[in-house]
Amino acid sequence: MRHLLSIADLNRADALSILDTAVELARISDAPVKKLPTLRGKTIVNLFFEDSTRTRISFEAAAKRLSADVINFSAKGSSVSKGESLKDTAQTLQAMGADAVIIRHSASGAAQWLADSHWIGGSVINAGDGTHEHPTQALLDAFTIRKHLGSTSGDLKGLHIAIVGDILHSRVARSNVLLLSLLGAEVTLVAPPTLLPMGVQTWPVKVSYDFDSVLPHVDAVMMLRVQQERMQDLFFPTAREYSHFFGLNRDRLSLMKKSSIIMHPGPMNRGLEITAECADSARSVIVEQVANGVSVRMAVLYLLLAGAQQEQGGLLA
Predict the structure, then answer these.
(1) Mind listing the pLDDT tens digit for each residue in 32-61?
(2) Hey, which residues are catalytic here?
(3) Engineered SS bond to 230: which of 14, 169, 178, 264, CB 3.0-4.6 Å?
(4) What is the fold of 7-133+290-316?
């Protein structure tokens, strides 16, 4: 495989290979010199049509730690804002000799289109496309869960994860459901009915509308940002009511297992889906998720661009 477009493209061995590689590469972050020569001479383009801080910087840091050359391309201030199409942009990147393009786009399927086109010769990595998927976020979430709670077999079998909030608009939720289930975890979605997508009954999950009843039984609680910028209609009466029923606060923190962890893909709406007290508590691994993202994205870049000749089958088959 040349690209990472969806968690659905991976099997269990592929996913574990990425996570295991990330464990090895995480040691670079603790070394005096945080750099490897692995991708020297490779050119990686961050092609972001949507605003991003964490994901773009994380991919940039990952590429630079592997000694790749990085070009950051933002739609704002570029020819895209003048009407240039994705096809024209792709042809420009190909002319620059990009070995990998990391794309974030507001349209679901944009990463797949780019990979399927004949305009990009290198690898395509999906950094979030519309409300579809965000595979590397799911991988770093699984990496974080495994680090704190994982089994000796390396997977997440026996763990129960709750994903809470705006499931409807969340590409993070979709990728996490696929990956956590693939690795053996039980997943429960907690949200108001208006923020659950059509067809959710076909997903490999349980669904609950009662946050309090779920909390005592889960090993990790993944809070999702309420994506108000994607909401054209009224999905809940008031922010106060949403927070009352689906926000993580001090009272709900007391319902959780002592060993359970709190997660959030960021950016957070503090006071809406999560209080500052919970976000900054000892249970929270939110800041650690950001650090783990660099290691996981290093692993993806390494396996796609440097490991092709070493791997037989699996991710690079």
Answers:
(1) 888 999 999 999 999 998 888 899 999 999
(2) 54-55, 82, 104, 134
(3) 169
(4) Rossmann fold (3.40.50)
